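Session log. Operator J.P. requested a structure for one protein chain; no other inputs attached. Running the standard single-chain path with token output.
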Amino acid sequence: MKLTPRGVNEWRWFGLRWGLLILFLVLGLLYLTDMPGKSYSGPLHPLDEQEFVLRDRLRVHVNRLARQIGERNVWRYPALEAAANYIHDYFRELGYQPDRQTFRSQDKMVQNLAVEIVGSNLPEQVILVGAHYDSVLGSPGANDNGSGVAAVLELARLFKDRQTRRSLRFVTFVNEEPPFSYTREMGSRVYASRAREQGEQITAMLSLETIGYYSDLPGSQHYPYPFGLFYPDKADFIGFVGNLSSRRLVHRSLDAFRRSTKFPSEGLAAPSWMTGIGWSDHWSFWQAGYPAIMVTDTALFRYKHYHAPTDMPDKLDYDSTARVVMGLGHVIQLLANEQ
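Structure written below.
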């Protein structure tokens, strides 16, 4: 068996084959990472009055979930219920009538919570914004995912008195963390499956997953190979991530964010089997055939307190998170009103 080419012609064919393979790989990666617009670079603007209020509200929610309630999952069931009740009561304070979707898990009744603003022109079409409120065993879950829940609560507040063409739904899910991830006891899996069974038209789902940590230090951001070749090494951006079927939603969302918000942002639409692409509740909506993306600070690829007892509220950057949430408001506004 020949292990190496011999002669000029064999070397030429060998080089051509490998050259074509490398070319196809590079073109494929460029396709996955090609995004509309350009990420913002430059100094961040001072917070305006609305963003100051939002920042402080986000801080209050994260402190309540991670510091006062703390670790929350079925093994700390009273804390899990306290978190659900806090979310329910806040929705009620905003003037919503929350829907509790309950199901049994580990011989306990757990719940997803949802509120909706019915659209004016296309009420059957739903833009869904969600985040999981449970935390992993051993962690108080400030960033993962108190930050995402806080954002959902405040986006529900920002849109309470707005009228949109499509319906808006704000949902908090239970049981995203192991051992429920990718199982039928995952809260978002239950929710998405029931939505499909009932024939609901969810035209876009945004999963807000770990969105509170940022750093402008060189080398603070890491990636699964080979994405470090295409993205910055500073952890100062928010990411929009989807599978290939949700590529258009990634593009529309990122474009709306970049047009409206002076904050760094990156996007990726890649096969769902690639590391990190399906690591949140958007995965459940893919299984039900809905377009869905994750909005994230990339979690463990920048945050050393990921799934740790040290994931506490003082580790988060609330100014940057407020800017991101305001930007997401513009994204939701576009998705809910576009023709």
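Operator note: The radius of gyration is 21 Å.
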